[in-house]
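Repro:
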Amino acid sequence: MEALDGIDAEVARIFAAKEQRRHDLARLPFPEKVQAVIELQKMAATILRARGKMVRPWNVSASHSISLSTGSTEKRASASRVTPTKS
């Protein structure tokens, strides 16, 4: 029975760490959350391209609605309008 007690303690520790991670992510500022989504898209894009899928992760530097570094809504001079492509 001792082995099960050790496993239960380890599982409880893992779930507590998982819950703490979720709370930490929830407290991140919005721009950092968007950056995390972009990084996940880049990781997934690599896999999807290998499977022959055509994917394009978000390009925040091309948008002008919200600056991730400042959080302000200013239009960048170099920003170009992004139009969706039909596939």
